[in-house]
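PROTEIN DESIGN WORKSHEET
SECTION A - STRUCTURE
LENGTH: 104
TOKENS:
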């Protein structure tokens, strides 16, 4: 997905994705939820923004490897402290502390 595709998504959704918003991507297996969310997060991080990536199924290392294979280096942004990955379920206290940090 190119930056033009992300721009198109922002154009279509308009103010819906303007700050401060929490975007939840939902759909059937194979619909492209992970790919869409990953590209949106990567695009934001390239512009210097932070991303909080919450997954209910994806394993961090497996996801990072798959994304790296399509040109998205999430590990680099995690090392730069621009990305925090959380796999749920985790204690609510941990999630609420990240929400405060990211001001979601």
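SECTION B - SEQUENCE
RESIDUE ASSIGNMENT:
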């Amino acid at each position: 997905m190119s930056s033009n595709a992300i721009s198109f998504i922002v154009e279509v959704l308009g103010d819906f994705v303007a700050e401060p918003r929490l975007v939840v991507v939902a759909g059937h297996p194979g619909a492209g939820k992970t790919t869409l969310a990953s590209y949106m997060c990567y695009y934001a991080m390239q512009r210097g923004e932070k991303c909080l990536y919450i997954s209910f199924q994806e394993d961090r290392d497996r996801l990072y490897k798959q994304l790296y294979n399509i040109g998205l280096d999430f590990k680099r942004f995690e090392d730069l402290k621009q990305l925090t990955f959380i796999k749920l379920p985790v204690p609510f206290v941990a999630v609420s502390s990240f929400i405060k940090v990211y001001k979601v």
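SECTION C - NOTES
The helical segments are 3-13, 33-46, 60-69, 74-79, 92-102.
The longest strand covers residues 51-55.
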